[in-house]
Amino acid sequence: MKNKKAPIKRTIYALIIVGFTILFLTAAQRQNQDTICFENTCIEIELATTPKEITTGLMHRTELCESCGMLFIFKNDDTHRFWMKNTLIPLDIIWMDANSKIIYIQKEAKPCNTPACPTYGPETNSRYVLEVNRRYAEKHNINIGDTAEIFILE
Fold first, then answer.
1. CA neighbor of 111 nearest in space, from 55, 63, 50
2. pLDDT tens per residue, range 42-62
3. 113 exposed, middle or buried (CB, 10 Å; 0-12, 13-18, 19+)?
4. What pLDDT score was predicted for residue 29?
5. Beta bridge pairs of residue 46
6. What's the distance, CA 99 to chain centroid?
7. Is the pLDDT of residue 118 over 70?
8. Is 14 helix (H, G, I), strand (E, B) or coil?
9. End-to-end Cα, the chain, rounded Å
10. Residues 76, 78, 83, CA angle at the centre, nearest 5°?
C-alpha cells in the first residue's frame, strides 16, 4: 500500500525551499541600504555617481567594513580606468558591463602614495565598477562571468 502523504510532504518541502530562496533573493530590497548581490554574498554599497564622488572614491579612508563597498555608476559605457592614489586600503576592484555581468577583476590593488600610480581596468567597456576589501572576490567566489543584482533605494 502506497503512502498517500509522501507526495504532499514533498510538495510542502519544495514550497518551503522556494519560499526561503525568494526571501534570500529579495532580502536586500527590504533593507534600508543600497546593496549589490552576487550568488554567494551581498554587499552594502555607497554609491559614487557624481564627478566628485567618482574622483574621490575611497581615498583617505582607513577602513571599510567586511561586507561594504563602493559602487561607481557611470552614465556611459567606456574603458573606465582606476588608480589607487591616496587610497589607504588594499582593494579588489570589479568591473561590470551594462547588464551587471563581471568582465574584469583586479585582485589586491595596492595603495599608492606616489605621484605616478599604476592604473587598473579592462580594455573593454564597462558601466559599473565595485570596490571591496582585498580578497573579497576570492573569499566569496566572485568570478568573471558572474552577474550581480543591484538594489538601489529610491
1. 63
2. 999 999 999 999 999 999 999
3. exposed
4. 45
5. 70
6. 13
7. yes
8. helix
9. 58
10. 115
